[in-house]
Amino acid sequence: ETTYYDTADQRMVVPRLGYAIVKRTYSARGQLTSEAYFDQNERPVSPNNNYTHVTYEYDVKEGLLRREFYMFDTGYSRRITMTPEGYAQITYDYELETTQPSAEHYLDENGLPVVLPDGYAIKRYEYVGTRVAAVSYCDAEGEPAMSENGYASVSYLYDVNGNVSCETYYDTQGSIVACAEGYAVKEMLFSEE
Hints:
Blueprint: E1 2-3, E2 21-26, E3 32-38, E4 53-58, E5 64-72, E6 78-80, E7 89-94, E8 101-107, E9 122-128, E10 131-138, E11 153-158, E12 164-170, E13 185-187
Antiparallel strand pairs: 1-2, 2-3, 3-4, 4-5, 5-6, 5-7, 7-8, 8-9, 9-10, 10-11, 11-12, 12-13
């Protein structure tokens, strides 16, 4: 449990956070299983996100399988709720023998796919070793979809120190495309000191 206090040693809601207390529960393996937000009087609050409680479900290999977002109603009964980002649940897929998610599926309160305002329902990940090599955006059927950022996928290259050194943007056909900000490739150089 984390609680915030003012200079008079009174619990206070931190404006930037939207809550005074966050209570977290963990599994025997040390995995976060729930998070709930409260005001200074321990009443459930929605910390600027339209939900008061988040639950986390894991598989036997300790990979995150599902996150669900809830709102406490009057009387402290909870109901699953949509976030401002447009989903109530996120489920995760994994490739065999990995602990990194290969896909995130965005779902409504009933577990049905939703297309987010950003233009996609599924986010897919490709890895080289432990590093994300590419992220792709797909519609509810798993087909490539253009995100509101102007691309359907982005690939990453890394320098010898593990910093992202290049991002390249692609359309639904796999052709290089300019993102919403007008560029197609972003190169980053890091000075070594």
